[in-house]
Design goal:
Length: 180
Amino acid sequence: MRRTLRPGWKRRRSREPREGAAAIEFAIVALPFFFVIFAILELGIIFLVDSMAESAVQQASRLVRTGQAQGGAVSPAQFKTALCQGMSVFSGDCEARATVDVRVIPQFRDPNPPDPTADGTLGPAEGGFDPGAAGDLMLVRVWYQQPVVTPLLSQALTRLDSGGAVISVTTAFRNEPFDG
């Protein structure tokens, strides 16, 4: 008497050795997948900080543009505090991470101010604070150091030896005729 096999026996038998394949495939793909997700999230935070810094610089520059900072009425520390108040949720470390440079420029095109990140460091001595007089052309620059944790992202974004990204915000304007 001849034994016949059930029709699904061969298919079931071929699936048995593959039961752990999904776990192994996930283990191979998981590290790059989570790395990419983390890099996207960190890049999103950097763009958020950049957007908030842009808005904060515009708000703080208004102190200079309208004449509120002239005559020693606003110190460099007070200007930085006004800037950091505009950074919302990132205002906690703003005082330590931000470097501010406010200066009078001779013309709008090619003001040629020095680049403080050229040597791989960003020191607080690089910035200055000269709010100018009525009608002066002004350049307000802010550099904000944002730490970067993702290894390949830090190599692509950083100009500092410390591995942090430098967010640079610049605005140029003419002071209002606030003298009368």
